[in-house]
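Known limitations

Structure tokens in this collection are predictions and should be treated as such. Users comparing against experimental data should check residue numbering before alignment. To illustrate the layout, the record for CD200 molecule is reproduced below. The input appears on top and the generated tokens appear beneath it.
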Amino acid sequence: MMKVVTRDERELLNTPASLRCSLETSHEVLIVTWQKIKAVSPENMATFSKNHGVVVQTAYKDKINITELGLQSSTITFWNTTLDDEGCYKCLFNTFGSGKISGIACLTLFVQPTVFLNYKFFEDHLNITCSANARPAPVISWKVSGSGMDNSTEILSHSNGTTSVTSVLQVKDPKSQMGKEVICQVLHLGTVVDYRQTVNKGFWFSVPLLLSIVSLIILLILISILLYWKRRRTQDREP
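Generated tokens:
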């Protein structure tokens, strides 16, 4: 039984990537063809034969090449992967006497997470925000001590193929988290990474406090004006 050995690959987006096929047989191979599998029918990309060497179709020139020039094993290389390159590819070995023998290898592209972790005080609560952007979409979870917390998550897909996940942890009692460490856990492609932030004591916005300060300032200004005019009038009356 003739068998084609392939292996699926996962590579970083916007970097080179390669797919390889190997035919486990001693049959004579006349030509190797690489095709991209599409919904309607496979699309020819490139071929290799002893007589004609490597022939790359016009749509794929400057994008890919056959970099292992063999008839028993063949490797196709993408010079700089784009979202359009993600998918499955067929390698066809056209043998003498046994026809075409094929295998399928798939390429998956990813982007490493970019993570931001911060917090902000409000009048009556504390918001701790963890945002991660990656491909495929990351998963965010929290490790925080205490109670009285609400969690909301927003997911946004981008045209560059990445997905942003933003998780906001609302703490109803800000003082309970003072000096404590919060951990945002980001799961991506089976790996969990902890991002840590310590909540430090700070000033958070308070409407009653602000109104009190403003009122006090206005009162001091009015008193200063009254004292000034009283002094001026006293000076004007003196001979």
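For this record: The CA atoms of residues 109 and 197 lie 31 Å apart. The chain is about 15% helix and 55% strand. Please report discrepancies through the issue tracker.
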